Amino acid sequence: MALQAALLPSTLSSVPKKCSLAVAAKDTAFLSVSQKKVQAASLSVRTRVATTAPVATPGSSTAAKDGKKTVRQGVVVITGASSGLGLAAAKALAETGKWHVVMACRDFLKAAKAAKGAGMADGSYTIMHLDLASLDSVRQFVDSFRRAGMPLDSLVCNAAIYRPTARTPTFTADGYEMSVGVNHLGHFLLARLLLDDMQKSDYPSRRLIILGSITGNTNTLAGNIPPKAGLGDLRGLAAGLRGQNGSAMIDGSESFDGAKAYKDSKICNMLTMQELHRRYHEETGITFASLYPGCIATTGLFREHIPLFRLLFPPFQKFVTKGFVSEAESGKRLAQVVSDPSLTKSGVYWSWNKDSASFENQLSQEASDPEKAKKLWEISEKLVGLA
Ligand code: NDP
Ligand code: PMR
C-alpha cells in the first residue's frame, strides 16, 4: 500500500492509450518535478496495463453495411474490481468482448496483477485509482474518468470492507466510520456524481447496480444471526458517525460493532438503490438494481476474520447451508445484472435459486422502507457535501 501510495497519486489513472496522452499532458502542467517523476513511473505501469484501445470505440454506434446499427461496446465501471466478486465480474464482462471494464481500485498495482492473473486481455480493461475511504478521491476519480473521454453505460458499486473483529472504529479521511464510509457514503457520492455521465450515454440499457446482501435482510435466517442489522432512527449517522463524543454506529449505539456496521452499510446500499429508482428511473430510463450474489465464502471480504472462521466458513456454506457460490459463478451472476437483456427491470433486488436462475427477491421491511430511504438519502447528501 505504501509503495502504491507513493507511486500513484489519486489523480493518476490508467486509460486506454488513445486518451491517456491527453490526460497526461494536461496533468503534467500542474505537477512539480518530483511529481512528474512519479507520474513517469506510473505511466510506464499504466501502458503495460491498458495496452490497446477498446475493441469497438466506446461512444459511437457503428452503421453496418446492411444499414442496421450495431450496438457499440459498452463501458462499465466496477469499484473494487481487484479481487473477489468485482474481479470475477470484470473478467466475465470483458471476455464477452461487448464490454470495456473500468476497474476502479484503491491499489493500482494489485489490480493490475489481478487482471493479468485472471487472464483478462490487454485492452479489454482500464484501471483507475479510486479510494472510497476519501471523498476527495471519489471526486478525483470522477474527474479522471471524464477526462479519459469514455462514455459511461453502467456502474457497479461493488467494493466493500468487513471488520468483524474490530473492537474500535477506524475512520475515513473525512472522519466517518470506515465500513459505512467506504461501503455506503463513498458509493453514494460516486453514484450521484456519475448519474450525470450515465444520462449522457446513448447505450440502449444503462444500469446502476449496488451490491446488497442477505445478511442485511432480517427476513432471512442469515439475516438473523447476531449481530442483526438495524439503522434505528439514523441518529448516529445524522450526528456524523464520528465516534468521539458521539456514536460510530448508524443507530447511535454507544458501543462499536464491526460486523453490525457492515450489515448496516448493506441496508444503506439496498435503500439507496430503491431511492435512486424512485427519484430517477422514470426521468432517465436508467435501471437501478441490487443483488445478493450468493455466499462467496472464499473472497478477501473475510480477511480480517479469525483464521478458524476462514477455514470453516467455506465448507459450512458448501455443505451445511448450501448457500455457497464460487467466485467465478458469482461473477457471472453480477455480469448478468449488468448486461442480460432480461434483467432490465428497475428497483429490483436480484437473487439466484439452486439452479442458478435469477429471481426478484423480497427485501426485509427495513431494507425496503421508503421513509427510511428518504431520510438516509438526505443525511447522506449532507455528509458527502451535496447538500
Ligand atoms: P473482496 O474483499 O474480495 O473485494 C472487495 C473489493 O473492495 C476489493 O477489491 C477491495 O480492494 C475493495 N475495496 C475495499 N476498500 C476499498 C476502498 N476504500 N476503496 C476502493 N476499493 C476498496 O470482497 P467480495 O468480492 O466478497 O465483496 C464484493 C461485494 O460483494 C461487497 O459489496 C460485498 O458486500 C458483496 N457481497 C459479498 C458476499 C460474500 O459472500 N463474499 C455476499 C454478499 C454480498 P483491495 O483489493 O485493494 O482490498
Ligand atoms: Mg451466515 C441459510 C443460511 C445461511 C446463509 C445463506 C448465510 C450467508 N449464512 C447462513 C447461516 C448461518 N450463518 C448460520 C446458521 C450461522 C451460525 C453458525 C451463520 C454464521 C455466520 C457468521 C459468523 N454467517 C456469516 C458469518 C459472517 O461473519 C458472515 C457475515 O455476516 O458477514 C457480514 C456470514 C455470512 N453468512 C452468509 C453470508 C453471505 C455471509 C457473508 C455476509 C455478507 O457478505 O453479507
From TrEMBL:
It is found in: Plastid, Chloroplast. SUPFAM superfamilies: NAD(P)-binding Rossmann-fold domains. CDD domains: LPOR_like_SDR_c_like. GO terms for molecular function: protochlorophyllide reductase activity. Pathway: Porphyrin-containing compound metabolism; chlorophyll biosynthesis. Keywords: Chlorophyll biosynthesis, Chloroplast, NADP, Oxidoreductase, Photosynthesis, Plastid, Transit peptide. InterPro entries: NAD(P)-bd_dom_sf, Prochl_reduct, SDR_fam. Its EC number is 1.3.1.33. Gene3D superfamilies: NAD(P)-binding Rossmann-like Domain. GO terms for cellular component: chloroplast. It catalyses: chlorophyllide a + NADP(+) = protochlorophyllide a + NADPH + H(+). GO terms for biological process: chlorophyll biosynthetic process; photosynthesis. PANTHER family: PROTOCHLOROPHYLLIDE REDUCTASE A, CHLOROPLASTIC, PROTOCHLOROPHYLLIDE REDUCTASE C, CHLOROPLASTIC. Phototransformation of protochlorophyllide (Pchlide) to chlorophyllide (Chlide). Belongs to the short-chain dehydrogenases/reductases (SDR) family. POR subfamily. This is NADPH-protochlorophyllide oxidoreductase. It comes from Zea mays (Maize).
